[in-house]
Structures are given as structure tokens and as C-alpha cells.
Predict the structure.
Amino acid sequence: MRFHHYGIEVNNLEESIAFYKKHMGLPEESRIFFMGEELVFLATNDFRIELISNQHETKNHHLCFEVVDLNEVMNGFDSNKKIEGPYKLQNGWKTVFYEGPNQEVIEFLQVKP
């Protein structure tokens, strides 16, 4: 398991992309659409931020860890702590979200089949 990204929900996606490019030097890595939201990954080396287009007042953040086998991770967690998923994204990634001990959102992501 390794850190994959930190996800941030934002009101203005393009403004946020410009900010992180200008001030943090993070180039755009990829864009995908998932469940009605546009997701943009900005990355350099092993550091990645996921910007999530969200027009709601409430903003959520999450930590994401890349794993080799998503099913193995899911088998180790209490199913009552699952927030949502598992999902398969259009780029082939598989993901699931759990609640941590302090109500933090933790995503687990399998990027390789």
C-alpha cells in the first residue's frame, strides 16, 4: 500500500487548477468523469492532488491509498464502515471508500487489474 492522492472538492474547477499549477507547480495529469462529477488529477513525481468539481455547500476531503488487491483490503474492513463502492472507473481503476476512526474518509484504489 502506498499514498496515491489527497482529494479536495472545489466550487470552481478551472480556478483551482490554475492556482495549484501556478503556486505549487503541479501540472495536470488526467481528467475523468465519474457519477456526474469531473475529476482532475494534478501530479508531480509521487505527489498527487485530485480536484473534484462540486457545487454543494458542504465540501469533503479524503486520503487515498493505492493497493494491489482491492478485494483483500475490503475483506479486512468492517462492512458497517463502508461509505460507498466498490466502483470501477472508466479508466479501469477500482475504488472503495471507508470511514476511519475519526469519521475521516479513506479511499482505497486499485490501479492495476
